[in-house]
Design a protein that fits this description.
The protein has 248 residues and is of the alpha+beta class. The chain has helices at residues 7-30, 37-51, 117-135, 143-156, and strands spanning 54-55, 68-71, 74-76, 90-99, 102-111, 160-161, 167-169, 176-180, 197-200, 203-205, 211-213, 220-222, 228-230, 233-238, 241-244. The protein is built from four helices and 15 strands. The two termini are 30 Å apart. Bound molecules: 2-amino-4-trifluoromethylsulfanyl-butyric acid (MF3) and cobalt (II) ion. The site of cobalt (II) ion (CO) has 5 residues, from loops.
Length: 248
């Protein structure tokens, strides 16, 4: 069963979304050559505390970080540490918060200084694939219309979508039903209804979609070592269509 949120619950999730989007905007500015992923994570904690929210990821199934920071061939779940960022790196930041009992989740990828045109294209295609996915997040569509739109756009542009990690419903829990793959045939699975809230999160690889997890037990990297980009929004389905909650 996919939970349906009441208007009051959606109002709390809108506030949570505005807060996390504000924090994300500040973190984006902190991505600079010479800084470390650990320092960006420290800032995230500081901004969360200032807003009176807590990290949704810290200690989630033992995850040790405040946020996830995945660099270049790292796809998702990179653990912040003392790694210095260098010009040309691409950096995926994934953050989640809990506010008044409700979760909000978002991610974005940004380049450090000047990056290759191929990396720019990768980031652009990943960002736009999320836009196309969100366009399908409307009442009476089916869940896999989102998946199909993302995969179709990404593969038409010569990149691939990761299979091993998926989007998810979100609300009182960080991960609720349904799972939202970023690939699949259209017009399958659940019919979408107003009040559903979905965290849609395409992970797009420059090369092959295959990945593996590093010995730290978390960091997912591309099997071929080529870069990957990740974008995520928490989106509510309303009578009027998709409403992106994680925007300011
Ligand atoms: N956006 C990711 C997800 O929904 C982030 C989870 S990180 C974890 O799975 F640390 F909490 F696992
Ligand atoms: Co998520």
């Amino acid at each position: 069963m996919i939970p349906i949120k009441s208007e009051q619950e959606l109002e709390v999730m809108r506030q949570a979304g505005r807060i996390i989007a504000g924090i994300a905007a500040k973190l984006r500015e902190s991505v600079k050559q010479g800084t470390t992923t650990g320092r960006i994570s420290d800032l995230a904690l500081k901004y969360m505390e200032a807003e009176g929210v807590v990290s949704a990821f810290k200690n989630y199934r033992g995850y040790p970080g405040n946020i996830c920071i995945s660099v270049n061939e790292e796809i998702v779940h990179g653990i912040p540490k003392d790694r210095q960022l260098a010009e040309g790196d691409i950096v995926s930041i994934d953050l989640g918060i809990k506010y008044n009992g409700y979760f909000s989740d978002m991610a974005f990828t940004v380049g450090v200084g000047s990056i290759s045109s191929r990396a720019k294209k990768l980031i652009d295609v990943a960002r736009k694939s999320l836009v196309f996915g969100i366009k399908q997040a409307k009442a009476d569509n089916r869940l896999s219309d989102i998946s199909y739109a993302i995969q179709h756009y990404v593969e038409n542009n010569g990149f691939s979508v990761v299979r091993q990690f998926v989007g998810h419903g979100i609300g009182r829990d960080l991960h609720e039903e349904p799972e939202i793959p970023n690939f699949g045939a259209p017009n399958q699975k659940e019919v979408l209804r107003p009040g559903m809230v979905l965290a849609i999160e395409p992970m797009v690889n420059m090369g092959n979609w295959d990945c593996r997890v590093l010995k730290d037990g978390w960091t997912a990297v591309t099997a071929d070592g080529l870069p990957s980009a990740h974008f995520e929004h928490t989106v509510a389905i309303t009578e009027k269509g998709a409403e992106i909650l994680t925007s300011v």
